[in-house]
Design brief:
The chain is mainly alpha-helical. It is built from 4 helices and no strands. The two termini are 28 Å apart.
């Protein structure tokens, strides 16, 4: 993973994934709900790990679906390379921090 900061994020790949996650109202709501649920179940620290795995898994699965049944070829190789550059933890941390702050402001106690 190459750290080449872009618009305040770890790199371009991380920024563009987060941009697309936020760009659609349904996707944005889904990921906010997932982050909140992870915080409630796993506490703040555990939520980052859980959400990181979930975000990465779902995006990798979506890439495979978009690429079709072909497991080789230039486009698959490029997609795999781009996804390997995403800092999934940074995205998860951002979502968890927002969810935890929202829960705390609502008076919900959460684990560290």
């Amino acid at each position: 993973m190459t750290n080449k900061p872009y618009n305040g994020w770890y790199n371009y790949e991380t920024w563009v994934v987060k941009l697309w996650m936020d760009n659609d109202e349904g996707s944005d709501a889904y990921w906010r709900d997932q982050a909140e649920e992870c915080v409630k179940v796993d506490g703040r620290e555990g939520a980052v790990r859980s959400l990181e795995d979930l975000i990465k898994e779902q995006h990798e699965e979506a890439a495979c679906e978009k690429m079709g049944s072909s497991t080789c070829g230039v486009f698959n190789d490029l997609m795999t390379a781009a996804l390997s550059e995403v800092n999934w933890r940074e995205i998860a941390q951002h979502l968890v921090d927002e969810a935890a702050d929202a829960l705390i402001s609502e008076g919900v106690e959460i684990e560290a």
